[in-house]
Amino acid sequence: MSRDDDIVQIPDIIHDVNTNISYKKGRFFGKGGFAKCYEITNMINNHSFAGKIVSKKLMVKENQKEKMTQEIQIHQSLRHKHVVGFYSFFEDNFNIYIVLELCRKRSMMELQKRRKIITEPETRFYMRQILQGVSYLHQKRIIHRDLKLGNLFLNDELQVKIGDFGLAATIEYEGERKKTLCGTPNYIAPEILHKKGHSFEVDIWSLGCIMYTLLIGKPPFETSSLKETYSRIKKCEYK
Fold it and tell me: Which intervals hold domain Protein kinase (predicted)?
């Protein structure tokens, strides 16, 4: 898809017919998976949000639509100071729009890339917030399944906000084990790779990888080959 095609697809003024609110599209933050993220501003009160915009052209398979619905349902049900705030969602003929809390300090991935190594007191400061957020998710019977620095956002007060619930799943009954292979290679838990079923513990594993990355400056199992990384994870081989 060309850049021009892109401009045609996402209008400069985005209108929510349900609430009759119009948003002005601002700066582009980035893209991942199916979504593009922009700053969007409510034209009535000038409040700014993050707009996660998904093209309906990409939602061709039935399971993709289901996943999108599931992501919205899960995120919509959450209210916590360490989870990205969910405000609303709506659609037009071309796109689905999700209106989220704006985290101006971007993600912890940018922080780590800029600083390389984070001091122990700072890591403690961030980890405590992340743990509070994850603890809340687990109390709500939700596994995030893609906890990584790129999905941890920071607001102006440097409060951590957990975001991106695209891979999240709800544990429906006590002892249920999920089977889907999902996550980001450097943070993926051995339970997921062994495909014997996984639950809340996969998020705890990712938290360990996050803490290691902040303190050491690179993820614990990172290699230049995916196969080798997975092999190290299965053996829990790190220095």
Answer: 23-239
